[in-house]
Amino acid sequence: QVQLVESGGGLVQPGGSLRLSCAASARLESVYAMGWYRQAPGKQRELVATLTSIGLTNYAASVKGRFTISRDNAKSTVYLQMNSLKPEDTAVYYCNVALTATITYWGRGTQVTVSS
User: Is residue 9 a contact partner of residue 110, using CB atoms and an 8 Å limit?
Assistant: First the structure.
C-alpha cells in the first residue's frame, strides 16, 4: 500500500503560478511511473503530466510549455510546477503513482482555482 498526500493547491489569479507537491510513502526509485491528473466539475478525470522511472515525460497538449513535472527521490515527492495558469486549469488535481503497469495508487486530490 502506498500513501500519497497532495498539497499546494489554492486560489490564484490568471497568469499566476502554483507548485503542487505529492509526498509518497514509497521510494520513488522503485515505481514504474508517477503522474498528475485533474478533474473539473462535470468532466472526466484527465491526464495532466506523467514521469516514468527513467525520466521520460508526457504532457497534455493543453498544459505543454506551462506545466513541469519533476521528482525529488530523497524526499519521495513528486511536483507539478504550474505557470501561466488559466481559468480552464481550475480542477481538483490528483497525484498517481504506479508501482507496475497495473498496480496504481491515488491521492485524495488538491483543489486549484484560477480566477480573478
Answer: yes
